[in-house]
Structure formats: structure tokens, C-alpha cells
DNA sequence: CATGAATGAGTATTCATTCAT
DNA sequence: GATGAATGAATACTCATTCAT
């Protein structure tokens, strides 16, 4: 019944604090170049303490990835199921939402780091494919099919269309994480505007009745 | 007149052999996780021999990247300058050619590894942006503008269109290098067919007078 | 109030233990020929532990030199300032004291090793010149001048006299450290007796009124 | 009967050229810090060629030391045996000659390097003691005794006197080689003048009838 | 539980030495 | 003989992990 002591509160928050620290540092410097002591320090604990929560650097990495995946997919799927109206609008809206919530923030770094470390963590790569990539494609693919079914979209092949919807965002994400400091092509346009324009371009090719330009 | 000795022949080939070994291993395992001795072994020489040709692992990495870049860009630019006819055809053809020559083979790994290691080699990242990314964008962007100018394309904004043309290929490349072993979505379609379909989709949105489907 | 744990006690003693081990080994085998692991082993710790205390072999060397210098100079200077009486006696006494405290023990090895490694550590060489050699010469030179001023010594040139006072001791020191095992000339006379005799000889040339032999 | 070809002449000179290169580099940088390739380069030959003349770096070092020792001792001994006149003059003259021929030039570096590397080359240390140190002491000691016998010197103990005659020169030699770049005390006096003054001081204590100052 | 001192396996790099040409 | 390409033993240093306090 007694309220949790500050110490207890602290302790309960530890795993998440470590995960957050790991996320930030792994994204910034990569897995190999991040020392476990740095992560502990950033989380405000001593080196040894980290190992009370995660038995190894590898396990911490896996936990960090799992913690940052599949956050928004179920959410988006539910949203999509309920939605009624033009699919094109929903797609555009979902892209913007994903960029705002995932792509832009640190969590987007997980996409990059998964790509980088996939070879080292095959188990995690499979997990990522099964839990993130495949569901995401299924979600988008389902929407494309709904669009075709309701006559909104032309009868395009689904898989390439899904790729065309996903690729630009992921590419922007990776590019910013890798060359953001060196390629200042985005001075003229914000990432959001760029996404919008890309979406418009794609939808123009997708819609059965393109808007008059 | 004297024929080069086998030893000499061997010596002349060494740098390229080391570069090839480095490419394969860096792509497969990442920079940090690749031991310099492994590279030497794969090139069929002893540890110390590597250092006769490249003074450090870092320099070897840089040489490897430089060796695999700027090979196809000038080539494509020349081809584009001479071309007369529908831009759409040229674009489609260039994409296929790039995929066949770069994306598919080991050289494509350089794109992945640059993305992965850019943070560790800022100097190299800048080089890559200046020598590869910027020229590539300029080339594609120029073609898009020619297409618009000759009335073939709708008056779309150039930059997002360039992204839409580049992203799918790069995304496929990275995806295959990272999750190829785990994501078997490509069983049904070959990468080439996928690219074709993506291109068709995009061009449909791009062309002033889309073909009747 | 809490007693320091054995571990803590150990930790506090480590730096000195490492310094002592380094002194012994560097003197015995030279800087380059001493492996850092040997030093650690001699101090009773593992390789890695050494690097917790000194960031590199170079820094360990520097710390070791600093730890063994400037200990006796200030002491001797104070002693000299207070002294009243025949300078000759003071000089003789100081020589004997220096030999007993520095020349004979391990600390004397620092003189040898500084001589040996000065080329490799120019910064340290300057430190040694400024902190040890120059003050020592100043101290001895001051005493010679006092001796001349009070009519005890002939009006000899100061600098050569200082050299004549210092050289024999240093020469003995270096000789013992280098050839002690091979040159058994000292069987007949102890180092102390030899020093005494050398001193007597020099003073005989120095004193305005030599003792009748 | 045919005159030796230039190539032959070159070959005959090789060992000495290698020895000279080794001397210069070992003195300048120390044994461990001198790479055998540097020595070869300085002698104008390739790395492998060095090993045709000396089977190892160690052997080259030993040969270099032997080549530079015992050059002037026999000579001086002969000179001393013939000499008639005041011993003090002979001693002063021998010191100056030794400094000019050995101490000053590169050959003097051998004294330093012997001191440095004695522990690593015990066999060489013994050789040095037997061939250089002991004969030198014997030569000087004999002169001191002659001086005493002919009433020129006071009846001083021989061994300490020998030390007092040798130490200043050796000390100057070592000091210059180690701290020459950092200790500019010799600005006011040349080494030769310093030696002269030291000698005068010592002789004043040595002579039965000191000159009136 | 938390800590951080201690550990030692693992790696990049150097350089004396060999030997095919 | 002379060369210099190739070798691999040797070593400084790092950092994930352990465990006594």
C-alpha cells in the first residue's frame, strides 16, 4: 500500500532509461563503436549496473531494437481498418504520421541500425522482417487493394506499388542519418514537403482519375 | 622486352585483390567487425603484406570505396548527353543498366557500406556526396527537366521526382544486402521485374499522356 | 570512520607499485625492451590494470621519472642554506648523502634512464634539465662561490669546478648500472671510499691552504 | 693484375659503409628505434643486402661497436711509453687529443650506446670492459704512478685519481649526447676550455709543487 | 542491489628476416 | 651478388564482462 519510494521508482525506470541511452548511442555511433560504459553513463548508472538488467551488450541491443519496433504498426492497422473514405487520403496521412512519429525522431534510427547490423544479428533480422517489414507491407498492400477494389486506383500490381510507397520515406531516413551533415540538398524543401510532393506524384500515377493539374 | 616475372605480375595485381577482398568482407560484416588479417587471408596474402600496400585499415577502406565509385557516373552522363528520343525510355533503360552493373554485383555493396560507415569517415562521406550523390541527382534531374521541356512529362517539381526515381533502386539494394536472407518476398518477382513495374507506375504519373492501360 | 576496504587500500597503493615496477624494469632493460605486461606482472596486476592508472607506456615512463626526481634537491638546498662552517665539509657530506640516498638505490637508475631515453622524450629531457640538472648545478655552484668568498677556496673558475664535483658521482652511477656485472674493479675499494678519496683529491686542489699530507 | 672494377671497389667498401651508417643511426636514435632498413638505406643499399654482410641486427651492432673501439688506446699507450717529460703535460695533452678524436665525433657516441645497451649485450659489455675500460685505466694509472715515482705528483692513491681524470670527459660526452639540445650551459665555454680548466684544477691538487696562482 | 576495480581475450600494426627473381 | 616482396612473431592497447565490496 505504501507509495513506491523514489529509489524504487528509479529502479523501475532503469530498463527504459538504459534502452533509451542505448538507442541514442547506437544510432549515433553504431553498435561496435559504442562502449557499454558510455551507455551506462548516459543512463546515469555505473558500468556494472547495466549488466544487472541486460546480460550482455548484444542482449541490450536486441532489447533496444524490440523496444523500438512494432510501436506504430498495430496502431496504424487499427486506424486503417476503421477508416472510410478515399484511400489516397489515408495513405498520405499515414505517411506523414509515420514520418512525424518514427522517421523524424530517434526511433527512426532503429531502421538504420537494423539495416547496418542485420548481418550480425540474424535472429533479430528475422524478427524485424516478421514483425515490422512483413506487417507493414501487408498493411499498405491491403490499402492498395482496397483502393483498386473500390475503383479509386487503377488496377496496378500491388507489390511494386507498395515498394514505391515505402521506399522514398526509408530512403530519406537513411540518407539523413548517413549524410545529413554533408548533403544539404534539403535546404530548399523540408522533408515533409518533399514527402508530400513525392506522394502526389505517385498518386497521380495511381489514381484512376488523376486530378487536373 | 623482358617478360614480367610471376612475382612482379603478382605484385601488380595485389592492390586490386586486396580491394576486392576488402569490399566483400566490409559489405558482409561491416568495417569494425572485419579483421584486417581476414582481408589479407581472403586476398591470399599474409597480414603484413596488406600493410605494404595500404598503411592502415582506414586507408584500405577509403581506397576500396574510391575504387568502386565514379566508374559508372561519367559513363551514364555521356550516354544521356548523346541520347535523342523519349526521356522515359532512357530513364527506364538507365535504371536497368545501373541495376545490372552496380546494384546487383558487389559494387552495389559500396552504397550500403557508405551509408553504414559515413559517420566514421566524414571526409569520405563528403567525397561520396560530392562525387556520387550530387552528380547522380544532377544527371537524373537534367533528364526530368528535358522531359518536361519537350512536353513529354507533366510540369512536375524536379527534386521530388528525382527522389522517386532513385529511392526504389537504392531501397532494393540496401534491403537485399541487409535482409536478403530473411525476406523472401522476391520469390514471386525478380528484382528486374520489380524495377520495371515500379518504373511503369512512376512514369504513368509522370507522362503528360499516359498510355492506356 | 569506516575503515578502507582491502580493495581500496590496494587501489591506493597501485600507482606507486606500478611506478616502482616500471623503474626497476626500465632501468634494467631499457624503455623499448620492457613490455608493458611485464611491468604489470611485476606489480602483481594484469595488463589491463596498468592502463587504468596510466594511459600509455609513455605516460607511465614520464610519471615514473617525475616520481623519482626533485625529491632530494630541495632538501639539499635547504640544508645548504642553513649550514655554517667550512664549505669543504658540507660538500663532502652532501656527496656522501646523495650517494647513499640516490646513487646507490633504485632512484639512481633514473639518472641513467634519463640519459638513455632523453632523445625519445624531448619534453621530459627539458623537464629534467630544468628541474634537476640546472638547480643542482646552481646549488653546487653557489657553495663553491661561498667557499671562494670566505677565503676557504682558491679563486677557481666556478663552472669547471662544479663539473669536477658532479662528474665522478654520476660516472660511478652510470658505470655501475651498465658494467657493474662485468667490471669488478671495485672489489678493493667500496664506492664510498672511492668517493671520499676523489673528494679529498679535488679539495686538495681547491683549498687555499691544503692540509699537510 | 687487373685493377679492381668500380663495382668491386664498391663491394669492398660495403661493410665499412654499413658500419658507419649503423654507428650514426644507433647513436642518434638508439638500437631498438633504428630499423635495419634505415641503416641499409643510409648505406645506399637495399634491405636484403645488409644481411649478406651481417647475419642479424645484433651482429651488425656488435661489429659496429668493435669497429669503433680500441682505436686510439694502443696508439696512446705507445705515445705514453716514449714520452719523456712532465706527466702533467702528457695527461693534459692526451685528454685534449682524445676529446678531439673520439669524444667530439660520432665515435664518441659508441661510449654512450655501450652504456645504454650493455645490459642487452653482456658479451659485448665484457668485451668493452676488457678491451677499452681496463686498458684505459691501466694506461692512465701507469702515468699517475710514473708521476708519483718521479716526484712530480703527491703520493695520491692511484685508482681514485684515475677516476677523476676520466670521469669529467665521459660525463661531458654523455651529457652532450643526451641533453645537448636542451642544456645550453656550454654557451659561455667551449668543451675544450672546460676540459682545460678541469684539468688545471685537478692537477693543482695533484702536483707536489702547485704553480703559483 | 549498485559499484567500479580488475581482468584478459582480441586486434591493428611494426619490423627483423627470408628467399624467389 | 643484389634486390625488395612477402612473411609472421611480437606488442601496445581496448573494452566487454566479472565480482569483491
Percentage of residues in helical conformation of chain A: over 70%
How many distinct folded domains of chain A? 2
Task: Please count the beta strands of chain A (DSSP E, at least 2 residues each).
Answer: 0
Shape of chain A: elongated
**Biggest chain contact:** A-B, 57 and 56 residues
Q: Please identify the top-level CATH class of the largest domain in chain A.
A: Mainly Alpha
Report Rg of chain A. Answer: 20 Å
Rounded mean pLDDT of chain A is: 87
InterPro entries (chains A, B, C, D): Homeodomain-like_sf, HTH-type_TetR-like_transc_reg, HTH_TetR, Tet_transcr_reg_TetR-rel_C_sf, TetR_C
Keywords (chains A, B, C, D): DNA-binding, Transcription, Transcription regulation
Protein name (chains A, B, C, D): TetR/AcrR family transcriptional regulator
Domain HTH tetR-type (chains A, B, C, D): 12-72
Protein model, in words:
The structure is a homotetramer of 213-residue chains. By secondary structure, the first copy, chain A, is mostly helical. Chain A folds into 2 domains: 6-65, Arc Repressor Mutant, subunit A (Orthogonal Bundle); 69-206, Tetracycline Repressor, domain 2 (Orthogonal Bundle), CATH 1.10.357. Helices cover 72% and strands 0% of the residues of chain A. The first copy, chain A, contains 10 helices and no strands. Chain A has helices at 6-29, 36-42, 47-53, 57-68, 73-82, 87-103, 107-117, 122-149, 158-179, 191-206. In chain A, α1 (6-29) crosses α2 (36-42), α8 (122-149) crosses α9 (158-179) and α9 (158-179) packs antiparallel against α10 (191-206). Chains in contact: A-B, C-D. Chains A and B meet through α7, α8, α9 and α10 of A and α7, α8, α9 and α10 of B. Chain B binds a DNA duplex (21 and 21 nucleotides) through α1 and α3. Chains A, B, C, D: Residues 12-72 form the HTH tetR-type domain. Chains A, B, C, D: Keywords: DNA-binding, Transcription, Transcription regulation. Chains A, B, C, D: InterPro entries: Homeodomain-like_sf, HTH-type_TetR-like_transc_reg, HTH_TetR, Tet_transcr_reg_TetR-rel_C_sf, TetR_C.
